[in-house]
Amino acid sequence: MTKSRFAEATNNPDMIVIPANTELRDRVVTGGSRHSAYKSAIKAAEDAIQDLSVEFDDWLKEEIERLILVFDALKVSGWNAKISDEIFTISHDIKGQATTLGYPVITDICDTLCHLLEKTPDVSHISLNVIDLFVSSIHNIVQQCQRGEENKKANHIAQSLRMMAMKILQQEMKRAQAKPV
Amino acid sequence: MAKIDFEKLRFVVADDNAHMRRIVRTLLRAFGSREIYEVEDGAAALEAVEHFMPDILITDIKMPIFDGIELTQMIRNPDGSKHPYIPIIMLTAYSERKRVLMARDAGATEFLCKPVSANALYKRVQNVIENPRPFIKVSTYFGPDRRRNTDPNYSGEERRETDPEAFVVGDTISI
């Protein structure tokens, strides 16, 4: 039965409860309307992001260039730990940014690619054609400016890639389980 | 009624991606913050935290040298760290439950999934300031109380060690 953290601590000699430090709150929380401060802060932030958005296409293109370069290296060297980590890192970076940059569908595609790379027991079994499909889809969607969630064609591509990745993952899981220890 | 004076807040933002740091910096500046230090790896983040003694650390998980989880563990070392009580907001594209629990168990204060929005970031900052939690020190953990809601009238079974679902609050992943 839980009474409080302090009561628990008296019964548990291993546990020390240090009361919440309110110094920061005391220093930065001031008088004034909380709601209007919140609203104006959000408005200012959204405006600032809007101003920044003129750079977003270039940012995304830079990230995709990085992905293409690593994929080119993969085509030459084949799979190794460094390359698979780089592809994962760049896809993960794009996944984190693309929605903010106006391409939620790219976030979905990179999420699928990250999932595939992270969960496949042995990534060297993933065909380079599969990675090529992901890279070229991302590239084409951005080249053709298929923004927003409402874009049917881009969403269809994202969905197809997800289904394909799930199939590959299932096969690879089965293969790993069937492998003699 | 009260508002947060962001001008008095000092942040360290750790993310290996320059675009992401720029977005977070833009949001924080729009909220009113002026002191924002940016770093691109875990080692630089630890150094910045100890040097600048920021009020809040916002960190990515996946970073070079050491990641956000390791960084948090180093900061939440009551014997070796210069700033063990700093509120840490983990900002990451990882959204799986496993990562959230890892962040929580390392001592993160809040978890925020990318894509970051102005609203979500503001609320996390607001929460760490307005609702500071007690710190718990046991042999296996030092950090903010991992139980957000302690109900003094709770009379059910103790689920802390056996039921990870005990940490899901409402419809959001919360730590």
State the distance separating the first and last CA atoms of chain B. Answer: 26 Å
Q: What would CATH call the homologous superfamily of chain B? A: Response regulator
- Strand percentage of chain A, roughly? under 5%
Shape of chain A: flat
| Quaternary form | heterodimer
Count structural domains of chain B. 1
Number of strands of chain B: 8
**Radius of gyration of chain B, taken over Cα atoms and rounded to an integer in Å:** 16 Å
CATH architecture term of the domain at 56-178 in chain A? Up-down Bundle
Structural class per helix/strand content of chain A?
mainly alpha
Shape of chain B: globular
Q: Summarize the largest interface: chains and residue counts.
A: A-B, 52 and 53 residues
The order of strands across the largest sheet of chain B is: 3-2-4-5-6
Query: Which structural category fits the helices and strands of chain B?
Result: alpha/beta
Query: How would you sum up the major sheet of chain B?
Result: 5 strands, parallel
Q: Roughly what fraction of the amino acids of chain B lie in strands?
A: 15-25%
- Output the CATH class name of the domain at 56-178 in chain A: Mainly Alpha
| Mean of pLDDT of chain A | 90
Order of helices and strands of chain A: HEHEHHHHHH
Query: Which CATH architecture of chain B is right?
Result: 3-Layer(aba) Sandwich
Task: Report on this structure.
The complex is a heterodimer of chains A (181) and B (175). Chain A has 181 residues and is mainly α. Chain A has a domain at 56-178: Four Helix Bundle (Hemerythrin (Met), subunit A), CATH 1.20.120. Helix content of chain A is 72%, strand content 3%. Chain A has 8 helices and 2 strands; from the N terminus they run αβαβαααααα. In chain A, helix 5 runs antiparallel to helix 6 (104-119). Chain A is flat and about 60 Å long. The mean pLDDT of chain A is 90. Chain B is built from 5 helices and 8 strands; from the N terminus they run E-E-H-E-H-E-H-E-H-E-H-E-E. Chain B is globular. Chain B has one domain: Rossmann fold, CATH 3.40.50.2300. With 175 residues, chain B is an alpha/beta fold. The longest helix of chain B is centred in the first third of the chain and has 14 residues, at 18-31. Chains A and B meet through strand 1, helix 2, strand 2, helix 3 and helix 4 of A and strand 1, helix 1, helix 5 and strand 7 of B. Strand 2 (29-31) of chain A pairs antiparallel with strand 1 (2-4) of chain B, so a sheet runs across the interface.
